[in-house]
Amino acid sequence: MGIMDGSPVERVAGAVWQTQHGTSPFEPMGRRRHATQFVACFPKPVGGGRHDSLERMFCRWHFCHCKKGVAAVGKTKRGKGTKLMVLADGAGSPLGIHVDAASPAEVTLLPATLEQLDQAQLAGSPERLIANKAYDSNKARQQLVERGIEPIIPARSNNRKATHQDGRKLRRYRHRWIVERTNSWLQNFRRLVVRYEKSVENFKAMLHMACALICLNRVWG
To answer: For the chain, which end, N or C, has fewer CB atoms within 10 Å of the first or last residue's CB respectively?
Structure first.
């Protein structure tokens, strides 16, 4: 309700004692001043009727406007959440992570997820990318081809114009369980199951730390 927590106020602040008594009496207190003298200087209520519970509760508090909402949090059918996009190699080691709100579809977040490969500065570009039907888009497949990556993305039943649907290459889709295993490894970290961090930068830092631990376990485990 004040400067410390920054929460908004439901009612108008004009009815609070703050407007009657000015700033908080804790400000003029010095280090050498006795506590009894300090308490005796508390301003007394000004006559003019009874005060409601809101005035008694928020007496001498500073009010400020606060913007609601947290970054990378979006609404879904089951509530609000954060979407985690993970890129993994053939062994299940995470190569890149992108964090965004849960509202956008996965296929719209594919370009931002592929940029994580450029930031990772890998020795070589991946030969193919295996994704589920949520990424069924001819535009997304074309973007992968332009980057020199073969798309292994099966088409939905209602998409009759899907490209890159060679049945022999789509057999590799059975290896998609590897990235699902990587997702389950990340869910073993309690701090990632529920997003405790309000700042998205802190949440990404926890994700990178978890990925580092997974890679170390793969090497030394």
So the answer is: C
pTM score over 0.70: no
C-alpha 21/C-alpha 29 separation (Å) is 16
Q: CA 72 → CA 100, 144, 202, 204, 210, distances in Å?
A: 5, 25, 12, 11, 19
E strands, the chain, where?
A: 74-76, 79-88, 94-101, 128-130, 150-152
Domains and CATH numbers, the chain: 1-68 (no CATH), 74-220 (3.30.420)
Q: What is the pLDDT of residues 172-210, one digit of tens each?
A: 999 999 999 999 999 999 889 888 888 899 999 999 999
At 116, which helix (H) or strand (E)? helix 110-120
